[in-house]
Specification:
The protein is of the alpha+beta class. It has 24 helices and twelve strands. It folds into two domains: 230 residues, Nucleoside Triphosphate Pyrophosphohydrolase; 320 residues, Farnesyl Diphosphate Synthase (Orthogonal Bundle). The longest helix has 28 residues. The protein is globular, with a radius of gyration of 26 Å.
Length: 567
């Protein structure tokens, strides 16, 4: 590993605080998705431009009254100045005692940094007991130039301590009790205008909240898995996607009304029942609303976007009906699949009718010009063809012993991503966006769809039947060639538990649990998650080309949602 100082020639950096700029020359530890050290590079390289994944730590100091020490970062800080964060955050460096064992390295770095920032002598911090309670990965952009992308190690300490803060690092500190922390996170009272570090929100959500204020439970927490939090936003409400939820709530009723009205074209009672069956199972209607959201972010949105979204949602449900027949899946959205509730023939007929209705309502719309109608019909027609091709590839994969990763990605690029791609592309076109923006949004939809499907694969084997609305682990027992399975089948390991249940059609809960644990130890689950994270990051980079707006923030939250969604 190289241990050297990088020169910073960029004259544009001269305006920055000299002390902070000097620390940008420190060598951080570059890590892979499993937190293994690859090499080292300067702090500035890790945090500038697109960023580089590196190792970091977060210390949370609780006193004897269980109050948590919070700090407001100094305005001189180059990244995230003035925001409130946990007691101490920084990076282990490529130096002795910090670049070998991960846990010991971050603890040593924490002692060094607490002295530098908080004035806590190392002979004091040396006597403390440190609880390493877990790790998480996230990225967060400060502005067009600066970004964080870290695997963060979370350390808990209990100590009563006197502080002598470094004003070049810290503007202010506060000791907060449980109520004070909640007020801060909710932005109440004095915190209404304060910004809280998004990584602290993740620490609180995943590590602290489940146990605090029970300090014994908290100190004894030990999560070996790396929690993937995806790309975070600085907006106070972004941690729970409030803008996205608000947007979905505003538009959902409109598109659902248009969808159900379109079904009134069908007078045959049994056929009408089969066509509307899946809509009774709920759903967030992401595809129905997505064209409108993209339209608001790229141009002028109008009622034609609702018709467009309704058309795509109806056609999406047509593919689900046929998909369930081909896969013989009995459950969809917590209800009997259409072919179970009715019969195969009726389900096929209902799907065909939904396809027809989807195109029919586009032609009936007064909000869509003839020029745009031609583009939409061509785009949606191509989407249907690509979905069919992808579905057939997926079906054929089940009879093949060997499927490559490249073939799988190409397949889901049609079966799943084509629909997201079309929603984004047509939404931008209908809003009057220029050709480059239309092309970029299509690419964003493609990346969004790839991330969506990979997360779907992961959720299938890590979720539960009640939450999923379909049998948990069905992809494994049905022998689906997911990226997880492909990685496992191409590994050099025996994997007896996985091979015992893979493609067998059914298995016991214990056998399935053993198979999942084996996939996890083999790195197959982490591999798929890393690939999903990559598409997630690429999707955000595409959104960087759009002008900042509330609508853009909604698209960012939708992108982030792919890494945390349940269904």
């Amino acid at each position: 590993m190289r241990n050297m100082v990088r020169e910073i020639p960029d004259s544009s950096l001269n305006r920055l605080d000299s002390s902070q700029l000097e620390m940008m020359e420190e060598m951080c530890l570059v890590v892979d998705a499993n937190d293994n050290i690859i090499n080292s590079t300067s702090k500035i390289d890790c945090h500038r431009g697109i960023g580089i994944r590196h190792r970091a730590f977060s210390v949370l100091i609780f006193d004897s009254e269980n109050r948590l020490l919070m700090q407001q970062r100094a305005e001189e800080k180059i990244t995230f100045p003035g925001i409130w964060a946990n007691s101490c955050c920084s990076h282990p460096l490529d130096i002795e005692f910090e670049n070998n064992d991960a846990k010991e390295g971050v603890i040593h770095a924490a002692k060094r940094k607490m002295f530098q920032e908080l004035g806590i002598p190392m002979e004091v911090s040396e006597s403390w007991d440190y609880s390493h309670i877990g790790r998480f990965e996230y990225s967060c952009r400060w502005d067009d130039e600066w970004i964080e992308h870290e695997i963060d190690h979370v350390l808990i300490v209990r100590a009563n301590v006197d502080l002598s803060i470094n004003k070049n690092e810290i503007k202010e500190t506060r000791w907060l009790d449980h109520n004070g922390i909640n007020q801060m996170l909710e932005g109440k009272n004095e915190w209404s205008d304060m910004v809280v570090a998004p990584w602290f929100r993740m620490i609180w959500k995943h590590f602290i909240k489940p146990h605090y204020p029970n300090m014994n439970d908290l100190m004894n927490t030990n999560n070996e898995e790396i929690i993937n939090c995806g790309r975070l936003s600085l907006t106070k409400d972004s941690s729970n996607g409030r803008e996205l939820k608000k947007a979905l709530g505003e538009h959902k009723e409109i598109v659902e009304k248009e969808i159900m009205n379109s079904m009134e074209k069908i007078s045959q009672k049994r056929l009408h029942g089969a066509m509307t069956h899946l809509f009774a199972g709920g759903g967030k209607r992401y595809r129905a609303i997505l064209p409108r959201l993209v339209g608001e972010a790229t141009g002028i949105a109008h009622n034609g976007h609702y018709t467009l979204g309704s058309s795509i949602e109806i056609i999406h449900n047509f593919t689900l009906v046929h998909d369930d027949i081909m896969d013989q899946d009995p459950i969809r959205r917590g209800l009997n699949a259409v072919h179970i509730e009715y019969d195969d023939a009726t389900a096929i007929n209902a799907g065909d009718a939904m396809l027809a209705v989807g195109f029919e309502i586009l032609a009936d719309s007064n909000e869509i010009s003839p020029e745009n109608l031609k583009f939409l019909v061509q785009s949606i027609g191509e989407m249907v063809r690509r979905v069919a091709e992808g579905q057939q590839e997926d079906f054929d994969f089940e009879t093949r012993d060997n499927v490559s990763e490249e073939e799988y990605i190409a397949m889901i690029g049609g079966k799943t991503s084509a629909m997201f791609e079309t929603c984004a592309e047509t939404g931008a076109k209908l809003a009057g966006a220029d050709s480059k923006t239309v092309e970029n949004m299509a690419d964003w939809g493609l990346k969004l769809g790839l991330c969506f499907q990979l997360m779907d694969d992961l959720i299938d084997i890590t979720g539960d039947t009640e939450t999923l609305g379909k049998p948990a682990g069905s992809d494994v027992v049905q022998g689906k060639k997911t990226l997880i399975a492909i990685h496992a089948l191409h590994s050099n390991n025996e994997l007896p538990a996985f091979k015992k249940v893979y493609g067998k059609g059914e298995c016991s809960d214990n056998d399935l649990e053993s198979a999942v644990n084996e996939l996890r130890k083999n790195g197959s689950i982490d591999y798929a998650m890393d690939r999903a994270m990559r598409y997630h990051s690429e999707a955000h980079q595409i959104l960087d080309s759009l002008k900042p707006s509330p609508a853009l923030e909604v698209l960012r939250q939708l992108t982030d949602m792919q890494l945390t969604r349940i269904n």
